Amino acid sequence: MLSNQVTQLERERERTSAELSEAKDRIRRLQDQLTDSQQEAENANIEYKALKAEFESYRREMTNRLEDSSEFLEELARQTDHLRQNELEKMPKRGSLTDRIIQLEDEVDRLQLENRELRTHCDDLQAQLLHNSVECGRSLLGNGSQPSLAAELNGTNNGGMDEQRFARNELERLSLRKPSTRSAAPPPQEENQNLMKRLYSSFWTLKERWSGENTESSVEGTQMENKGEKSSDLQKTSK
Segment Disordered: which positions (predicted)? Predict the structure, then answer.
């Protein structure tokens, strides 16, 4: 009976010793975990302090910037108000934008109408000037009894009559021309100068032609005289 109790106690002691060893191992592991946790907590505390210091520095910097920006915005607002007041005082008082657009449209219509009137007046003046030039040329060529300048230079009245006919035809051809409103007509002074140049060129063309004809006639007369003299000499020789 006693031996059974001793055996049971020994077994109990062994079981208790095993449990004690397991408990010691568990305590050792827990102590290691506690040490690691304390180290992590210390590191986290250090990092927190660093982040807090950085945050405080950043907040102070942003506060200073905000204050500077606020002052700058206030200064800009004052300058804007000052400029707005000055510009409003300098600008003339006008109506609304719609009224201004209506005024501009009326001004454009007035200028277009004035432009059409001036263009019509210019065409009338050109037609009147051309008519006056033609009438002036006809009045100069109307007296057929007096020889023209080209006829006086050539010494013949026939040349004067031909020149008058040619000039009259030229004037009639020019009088049929009407000013075109579609194409840009030359100025009246330039049109008059062109007319006088064409008439003057026609006169001198006739003069050169008649001078050439007179020269040919004189050459033919000289040749005929020479032939007559030669024939008379031959007749005398034959006799």
Answer: 1-26, 175-195, 210-239
Segment 76-103, tens digit of pLDDT: 888 888 888 877 666 555 556 778 788 8
Give 195-220 as a DSSP string: HHHHHHHHHHHHHHHHHHHHHHHHHH
Of the candidates 111, 169, 160, 107, which has an alpha carbon nearest to the alpha carbon of residue 138? 169
3-state SS string for 59-117: HHHHHHHHHHHHHHHHHHHHHHHHHHHHHHHHCCCCCCHHHHHHHHHHHHHHHHHHHHH
Structure tokens at 109: 């219509």
Tell me which H or E stretch contains 36: helix 2-90
What span, in angstroms and rounded, lies between the C-alpha atoms of 12 and 3? 14
Note whether 171 and 137 are within 8 A (CB).
yes
Q: Note whether 129 and 191 are within 8 A (CB).
A: yes
State whether the Cα torsion 149-150-155-161 is positive or negative.
Answer: negative
One-letter amino acid of 45: N
Residue with tokens 């008082």: 93
Q: Give the Cα-Cα-Cα angle 121, 123, 125 (nearest 5 degrees).
A: 70
In whole angstroms, what is the distance from residue 86 CA to residue 7 CA?
115
Query: Is 156 in contact with 207 (CB distance < 8 Å)?
Result: no
Give me the pLDDT at residue 155, please: 46
Residues of the chain with pLDDT under 50: 144-160, 178-185, 188, 234, 238-239
The answer to whether 166 and 201 are in contact (CB under 8 A) is: no
